[in-house]
Amino acid sequence: MRYFTVSSSISSLMDNQRPLGWTSNTLLLLFEVNLTIPIKFISICITVIKLSLELHLLAGMVVILM
User: Fold this and answer.
1) H, E, C per residue of the chain
2) pLDDT band at residue 29, thresholds of 50, 70 and 90?
3) Residue 6 half-sphere exposure, CB side, CA atoms within 13 Å?
4) Domain boundaries, the chain
5) Which of 1, 42, 43, 55 matches a 20 to 30 Å C-alpha distance to 19?
């Protein structure tokens, strides 16, 4: 009985490969978007922090030169 259930499940998956492909493509796209957005946000934050540190260093140099 279990063999028949597993066999019929596998054959139904094989028959429905196109919707399964759409589902896996959609899941991969969502996973990629969910990863790239935070990575880009972190990269922007690091750039802003670097720029603010450079501005503070430049401001300190200007004060010393005056």
Assistant:
1) CHHHHHHHHHHHHHHCHHHHHHHHHHHHHHHHHHHHHHHHHHHHHHHHHHHHHHHHHHHHHHHHHC
2) confident
3) 3
4) 2-65
5) 1
